[in-house]
Amino acid sequence: MEEFTVGAWLFALALVAFAVVTTIGFIRRSRQMEKMQSLMGSDTVSLPGWTEGETVRLLSSAEQPGFYTLKPRFLSRIETIAFHHLKRAVPQHEVLAHVRLLDLFQLTAEGEDEKWLEAFRRIAYLDVSFAVCDGDMVIIAVVDLENPAIAADERLTRLHQAKKLALKTAHVRYISFAPMHPPTEQELRQMVLRPDTLLA
Fold this sequence. Notes:
The protein is an alpha+beta fold. It contains eight helices and four strands; from the N terminus they run H-H-H-E-H-H-E-E-H-H-E-H. It has a four-stranded mixed beta sheet, with helices on both faces. The radius of gyration is 26 Å and the shape is elongated.
């Protein structure tokens, strides 16, 4: 009887310990999610726990007709002209279009969740018109087509400044020109390949 009582007590203590650990883990997770949502802004979609059921649901919704349609063009006509102009200027290099800053950069704040999320949030929706790479796909320069609408919109101006600052911080060679008044192929080649063509 005494052995049974001791065993029962040990089992009860184990259950209590398990409940305490589970509760603490849940509280920590909730606090982390609150921090992530506050860092990413109230207008950003929250990050739900990812489950196998969620994956299946998303895959099934992707199969429904009408959700996605192919764009008429990957590049606009003006972008297409600029793309071929840039390709002729640097024929030995690879030119990629509509490149996100997230694809160009490595976020170096890993291990510090708040700083990492803040760095991610700054560049999450920013991109450049073109990225120029050498044969080993090393980034040589980025090229933007100037957009007159940016100067007329305060929000777009701030985003553009944030993009330029991020590129400058990463020491990326940055070039921009008006698509209706592009530099010559020789001028553009010199701008892309010249070592001192860094963002001022």
